[in-house]
């Protein structure tokens, strides 16, 4: 079990996601990853956004947390700079059939309820944020 920090980035009625293909599964997750010993959850989310998306972000606010194989923290964030899709983290640059593929994408918020976005409860929360 490992605690994780993740970002939720919303721009132009779209949300940044990582499209995953692993074994026979096709699904989406919010950019994020494990919290290192010297990091807070928001610091991990910022680092992971850079590694996975290639962007520097600023945390706007905490959205939610829950327990699933460790504590999962989600933060609403804004892009400050960088080029979306240019992440250089290990999972983005190295091929490992056992880990599957990682591909950064923008998804319409209106489609979140139709896609297999994990975790579902955060996807539903973002869907509500995008409509309000």
UniProtKB/TrEMBL annotation:
**Alphabetized PROSITE patterns for the sequence:** NUDIX, NUDIX_BOX
Q: Which key words tag this protein in UniProt?
A: Hydrolase
Tell me which cofactor or cofactors this protein depends on: Mg(2+)
Q: Does the keyword 4Fe-4S apply?
A: no
Query: In what residue span(s) does the Nudix hydrolase domain sit?
Result: 1-128
The source's domain of life comes to: Bacteria
The name under which this protein is listed is NUDIX domain-containing protein
Q: Which organism is it from?
A: Sporolactobacillus mangiferae
